[in-house]
Specification:
The chain has a domain of 53 residues. With 95 residues, it is of the alpha+beta class.
């Protein structure tokens, strides 16, 4: 009986230990240098399967397979009147 009581008490004590006691301590260093002189060239076009994002194809502009925001509404890729089906996929015709 005493052995059973000891086991139950040990189990209950284990449950009462806060989880933060097991967490590793993480220290942030305050001497971090951030380089703010990075130049981003926004004129570079991303190419996918020889298609260039932002270039005109088949009567519209190809912006990839993402959705587009136009006049306060999001249009999923290929959904809506602003998308035109072409041999390369859908191109954006509005705007």
């Amino acid at each position: 009986m005493l052995r059973k009581f000891t086991m139950i008490a040990a189990f209950a004590a284990t449950l009462l230990i806060p989880v933060s006691a097991f967490a590793a301590h993480v220290y942030a260093h305050s001497n971090v240098h951030v380089n703010r002189n990075v130049h981003v060239n926004r004129d570079v076009h991303v190419t996918t399967n020889n298609l260039v994002v932002g270039r005109h194809y088949h009567g519209g502009v190809w912006y990839g397979t993402g959705r587009r925001y136009w006049h306060g509404q999001w249009y999923d890729y290929g959904v809506g009147a602003c998308w035109l089906a072409t041999p390369i996929g859908y191109v954006w015709t509005c705007g």
